[in-house]
Amino acid sequence: MTTVPARRGRPGHSLDSLLDVAVAVFNERGFEATSMDELATRLGVTKSAIYHHVPSKVELLRLALDRALDGLFAVLDEPGATTGPAIDRLEHVVRGSVRVLTTQLPFVTLLLRVRGNSPVETDALRRRREFDRVVTDLVRAAEEQGDVRPDVDPAVTSRLLFGTVNSLTEWYRPGRGLDADALADALVTTTFRGLRTAARPSPREALR
């Protein structure tokens, strides 16, 4: 069986650097308004150099959206999201989502702007809804365990929590003020105090 060697990127133009530039331009101009010619100009290469890495602009979009979504779904597989009381798992997922947002800010920003205008965007929205369902189930489980106030619908609570997380894309800039952990602390403090019942403090509060 013949093994086809992996294509090597041209010097100075890796797929990662190409994605970084593409996402920046998509966020500035919109995906539909961005041409491969413009991407080539921003990179200082020919279009053929881009096609060396990807077959189309759509593939760049898919890779970019998958990077944000894969980061979020990876949080759901972490031990803190799979063991312990539901309220603590929920807090872990919120903190992890803030971490993903701060480390992959342009990619998450792009994800939040898709509207389902293509099969790639439709699939990204499907995965976002799947993530939202997991979070809603955690809120519901925490409510059943007596740790979340029962007078708010779990789906509404989930939307409010992640509406707050997602709003960070509008103003957060890395290197200016709070780091990811401090930002997560601030967000959890302001949201979970209204969410939790008085029955049990958060893990961090319990250690104080």
UniProtKB/TrEMBL annotation:
Protein name: Transcriptional regulator, TetR family
GO molecular function: DNA-binding transcription factor activity; transcription cis-regulatory region binding
DNA-binding region: 35-54
Domain HTH tetR-type: 12-72
Keyword DNA-binding among record annotations: yes
Keywords linked to the UniProt accession: DNA-binding, Transcription, Transcription regulation
UniProt xrefs under SUPFAM superfamilies: Homeodomain-like (SSF46689), Tetracyclin repressor-like, C-terminal domain (SSF48498)
PROSITE patterns from the UniProt entry: HTH_TETR_2
Cited InterPro entries: Homeodomain-like_sf (IPR009057), HTH-type_TetR-like_transc_reg (IPR050109), HTH_TetR (IPR001647), KstR2_TetR_C (IPR041490), Tet_transcr_reg_TetR-rel_C_sf (IPR036271)
Domain of life from the UniProt record: Bacteria
